[in-house]
Design goal:
The protein is an alpha+beta fold. Bound molecules: NADP nicotinamide-adenine-dinucleotide phosphate. NADP nicotinamide-adenine-dinucleotide phosphate binds next to β8, α5 and β13.
């Protein structure tokens, strides 16, 4: 048996919120050729959950099923002209991939530096930061249908990427195990429109290179976001809600200081993104703490585990935040991480 198997497995070290849940069975896949064996080891153990870096998941309780932990490694660059295709196994660390691509002289992923998690999960989530999304650099990916055992390529269109969304998050999408991610890097103009970056790189100053932009992104993130190795968290806990023009005008009337960003829908209709962190802060949650479950003092969008918070406690806090934002603004906040386990 090449896949490692553990029963009644602790998950605390496998989720960045640091929740001490357990899984009925844990199967570690570190070699793609052992996939059939790994799948066989999950059979008969109820629900199956594919886990990467665990940075976008809340275990609301124990997981009464089998967790398939993807730890496959391998990355390569295939240059063409001044660009390259960057190919990574699903279990590769996203941040290490960004770093490596830059060190090889290829710009393109710098705004997405320091996002925790694996490359497979990065595609599922269509990770984004500072005006850039994974979809903007996407080439294709390979995924295996866990029900049929067949592997196929997904194009940009097939993935149906949206705001922190993809076909893999839609109903039925979790039957796909992402094996390999392929991106296009090199020859990418810098994306510097977000205020935090523009502030460091004014438009009348010389254009910075990709390594400097990545350094700036890392510094900004370090200053604002807690390091999950020191304080459990799953990054942004809620998506930014998007409202129509009428609702945006109404909100603006009530709260003239509310930031609203244009985010037209797929048909070009005007829509406005409301920063969820701003709403949560206005409702008074920033820095609050209930036992070991809390909201980060520097960033109201980040739910934190100060030590021993259970998944149920974190979820209860998240639900209270949703209720208070709904009651004050009539806006339903949607969690960004996947919520699984007993009590979800
Ligand atoms: P921020 O700069 O304080 O802005 C708050 C929100 O407003 C952001 O979420 C961003 O939406 C939106 N925004 C700001 N400037 C914008 C512009 N010029 N055009 C359109 N939308 C704009 O945000 P922050 O919380 O410090 O985060 C900075 C970036 O890192 C954001 O892109 C955020 O999504 C990303 N981030 C992601 C995670 C995660 O776990 N997924 C965690 C931390 C930060 P968008 O979120 O749509 O960009």
């Amino acid at each position: 048996m090449r896949a490692q198997v553990l029963d009644d497995a602790p998950l605390a070290g496998l989720n960045s919120l640091g929740v001490a849940a357990r899984a009925r069975r844990l199967v570690v896949l570190d070699d793609p050729s052992a996939l059939a064996e790994a799948l066989a080891a999950t059979a008969g153990f109820g629900e199956r959950l594919v886990l990467g870096g665990g940075s976008n998941i809340l275990f609301a309780g124990d997981f009464d099923g089998a967790v398939l932990l993807v730890r496959t490694r391998g990355r390569r660059l295939v240059p063409f002209a001044d660009e390259a295709r960057l190919i990574a196994a699903a279990g590769e660390s996203w941040d290490e991939l960004v770093d490596w691509s830059l060190s090889q002289g290829y710009a393109g992923l710098e705004n997405l530096a320091m996002i925790p998690g694996s490359c497979g999960a990065a595609a599922i989530q269509n990770i984004g930061a500072y005006g850039l999304e994974l979809a903007d650099r996407f080439d294709s990916l390979l995924a295996t249908d866990l029900e049929k055992g067949t592997t196929r390529e997904f194009s940009l269109e097939d993935c149906r990427f949206g705001y922190r969304d993809s076909v893999f998050k839609q109903p039925g999408g979790d039957r796909w195990l992402i094996q390999e991610l392929r991106l296009r890097v090199g020859g990418c103009p810098p994306v510097l429109e977000y205020a935090d970056l523009r502030h460091r790189f004014p438009s009348d100053a010389p254009t910075p290179d990709a390594a400097r932009i990545a350094d700036a992104v890392r510094a900004i993130r370090r200053a604002k976001l807690p390091d999950p190795r020191l304080l459990g968290n799953a990054g942004s806990f809620f998506k930014n809600p998007v409202v129509d023009e009428l609702r945006a005008a109404e909100l603006r009337r009530r709260e003239p200081a509310m930031p609203l960003f244009q985010a037209p829908d797929a048909h070009g209709q005007p829509r406005f993104k409301v920063p969820a962190g701003w709403l949560i802060e206005r409702c008074g949650w920033k820095g609050c703490r209930r036992g070991d479950a809390g909201i980060h003092a520097e960033h109201a969008l980040v739910l934190v585990n100060h030590g021993r918070a259970s998944g149920a406690e974190l979820l209860a806090l998240a639900r209270d935040i949703q209720a208070s934002v709904a009651s004050r603004y009539g806006i339903a906040l949607e969690p960004e991480p996947r919520i699984v386990g007993d009590g979800a």
